[in-house]
């Protein structure tokens, strides 16, 4: 399945465009990392992609079907969303949170049935957090909460997963754990679009990269094609060097190092 944005533009209340001329494509099995400075429009682009905001120009397609007029419920059958953070107002259990992912598949006023609960259990198992099913969601760690939100999105059984800075506010260990889980999901055939502030995330995990600045996609392609020293310098306005770091098995990985004055 293919998700495509064709010349999409958006502005709030007819003011200056937040972004314009956005054209991207991603297929199931891809992991696209969207990089850009604060205020570049990454979150607004995701909200437009998810149907929460209507573009002023352009079209969004799923397998060549225009989704502009789709209901949010129908769209939720194909795309799951994981926000930067989420604290519920009530002490829900982890299983309650994950079961909320079945909402798009339920009739009005219906409750989750045995099959819905089985799907939710499967999502917890996929991410290795079944042990949390009875825990109070508000009392678990930030990394665990992020994995629970991913499990909730998986329970929708979407074809594409949209993640807005999924590792923000996480310590290094939890960042690695969450990103490894996201990479596994892409390898299993899920299409993943995530934003990040760290080029190293794209080097390590992405199959595709897009650089967003001043409301436009400046570069798109593979990490090797896009993440050059010059391109990153133009996006972030800092001097950087790209080096090769070697893991224990001798495999080389590109890393981004800021130049200290």
Shape: globular
Task: Give the N-terminus to C-terminus distance in angstroms.
Answer: 47 Å
Largest sheet strand order? 6-7-8-3-9-10
| Largest beta-sheet characterization | 6 strands, mixed
Kindly state the mean pLDDT as a whole number? Answer: 91
Oligomer: single chain
How many DSSP-defined strands?
A: 12
- The structural class is alpha/beta
Would you kindly provide a written description of the structure presented here, covering whatever features stand out?
The chain is an alpha/beta fold and 261 residues long. It contains 9 helices and 12 strands. Helices cover 31% and strands 27% of the residues. It is globular. The protein starts with a strand and ends with a strand. The model has no long low-confidence stretch (mean pLDDT 91).
